[in-house]
Amino acid sequence: MRHVKWIFVVLLICSLTAFVEKDKPTGGLNEGNVAPDFKVESTLDTQPAFQLNQLKGRYVLLSFWASYDAHSRMQNISLSNVLRSSRNVKLVSISFDEFESIFKETVRKDQIVTPTCFVETQGENSRLFKKYNLNRGFTNYLLDGNGVIIAKNISAADLSAYVKDIG
Fold first, then answer.
1. Alpha-carbon span 128 to 132, nearest angstrom
2. For residues 146 and 53, what is the distance between their CA atoms, to the nearest angstrom?
């Protein structure tokens, strides 16, 4: 009977530690990884399809968002505002709204620069969504000229500092 109590205690402790959050990354893309290349077809009449490797040699900020996700939308607006006058970092803004009309209205309301703003109308079912492991939440990535991720989930203030350091 005494052994049963100890076994129960050990099982209880093991089950509790299984729910403790670990410090190491849990998958997805992280700093130091090369960002996967992708191609997005344009929905705006004035712009052609876009492929990430077209910007090889330039710093790029990839911003993934959707109009229904308030945090990602606000983050996208603030990052877009930081980069309005920057020539050193190119913003590529990608929405995962399933309706093009909602995307266009959001871009208009938020005053996002449209030459590099795209929508992936397959939303969470798109290959791009899965490739960047966005099921853990919308995020952004700052890439160096070789496509290596040098920052993830960067704030507007941190981006502003990077822009000053780069140029």
1. 6
2. 9
Amino acid at 109: K
- Per 3-state DSSP, what percentage of the chain is helix, strand, and coil (rounded to 5)? 40, 20, 40
Domain ranges for the chain: 56-166
**pTM metric for this prediction:** 0.78
Ranges assigned E (strand) in the chain: 39-40, 50-51, 59-65, 89-95, 117-119, 140-143, 149-152
Return the CATH class of domain 56-166.
Answer: alpha beta
CB 149 within 8 A of CB 160: no
Mean pLDDT along residues 4-32: 56
| Residue (of 166, 133, 136) closest to 61 by Cα position | 166
* Residue 143: HSE in the Cβ half-sphere, 13 Å Cα cutoff: 24
